[in-house]
């Protein structure tokens, strides 16, 4: 059910992406859509992306849509797809260890849930291996939150992604295995992310500190950023707001193709079928995570676009990445615009001709590794720009 990685090379390059650090997101010219028996549904779709979507659509017609499967079946398929599709640095540039974060770091929502939170911690074998300037001796740490509609995705499925992030940024990466829906409704996933964020900031767990710091590091300082894709981008945005309220300093939030709203958008309607993630699947994800979520106190805990401006204005600088043919492009752009209106430093990039989470599909899309390395380089620069290390100096 996983499409083959064979593809014809193309000359498309991501040079049109806007690299401005204070960009006002612009709506690109919209190309008309069309339908055909072969499911070629969008004029202007980059050729590799179009071929990938066609194969994925054919696979779904044969084996069923994601939303027609059990969560277990969908999780297995998604993990296999990401392992097959990802193309990046090999695993020789980083090393990792698995740790269970104590459940006590969670918020009050889960007082009866005693399950610990699994994480996998990656560290690069070389610090700043690509020469990114680091203005202090602080160790950089990225909390990475995987995507998958709060329902699918895992530490294992994103193993290569996080290896690549660590190798390319020179940072330690903490990959979180948050609780999934529908077994765990909102805000369970957000509570897990915040629990791990508190754990990282506290740096009291010798299993973490002894792994990421050099043994001869006497003046141990660290900097923390958070990033995630799709539902992981949603959880990262929510965590950035909550972190600002708790006084947990973040150097940046990396929101890659984020879901930010529960409301319908034009792009969700325009790209509802045939472009990797469908409206039917998104409805299934939202139902799994939000429907019957009795402990959900605020809408913005699942839809950060609805957060008050007074909350947004205090969050960390953001990199927001979207793609032209992503059903989530409108809400990703809208969140970048809201961040900018509230005075937050924003780097907004909208890749023309591309689809949802395409940087992780390098075995099928030639542009993907270039885009992913641009994202990694931006994370490294955002760390270098910060002036605050942890723990704070008294």
What can you see in these coordinates?
With 394 residues, the chain is α/β, with parallel strands linked by helices. Helix content is 34%, strand content 13%. The chain is built from eleven helices and eight strands. The chain has helices spanning 47-63, 71-85, 159-169, 188-202, 206-212, 231-246, 266-270, 279-290, 309-312, 329-341, 368-385; strands at 94-101, 117-124, 139-145, 172-176, 222-229, 253-256, 318-323, 346-351. It has an eight-stranded mixed beta sheet, with helices on both faces. Helix 4 crosses helix 6 (231-246). The radius of gyration is 20 Å and the shape is globular. The chain starts with 46 loop residues before the first helix and ends in a 9-residue tail after the last helix.
Q: What sort of overall outline do the alpha carbons produce when their principal axes are compared?
A: globular
The strands making up the biggest β-sheet line up spatially as 1-2-4-3-5-6-7-8
List the uncertain runs: 1-40, 131-136
Radius of gyration: 20 Å
Count of DSSP E strands?
8
Order of helices and strands: HHEEEHEHHEHEHHHEHEH
Helix content range:
25-40%
Structural class: alpha/beta
Query: What is the typical, i.e. mean, pLDDT?
Result: 86
- Tally of separate helices: 11
Amino-to-carboxy terminus distance: 57 Å
How are the SSEs placed, and which strands pair?
Blueprint: H1 47-63, H2 71-85, E1 94-101, E2 117-124, E3 139-145, H3 159-169, E4 172-176, H4 188-202, H5 206-212, E5 222-229, H6 231-246, E6 253-256, H7 266-270, H8 279-290, H9 309-312, E7 318-323, H10 329-341, E8 346-351, H11 368-385
Parallel strand pairs: 3-4, 3-5, 5-6, 6-7, 7-8
Antiparallel strand pairs: 1-2, 2-4
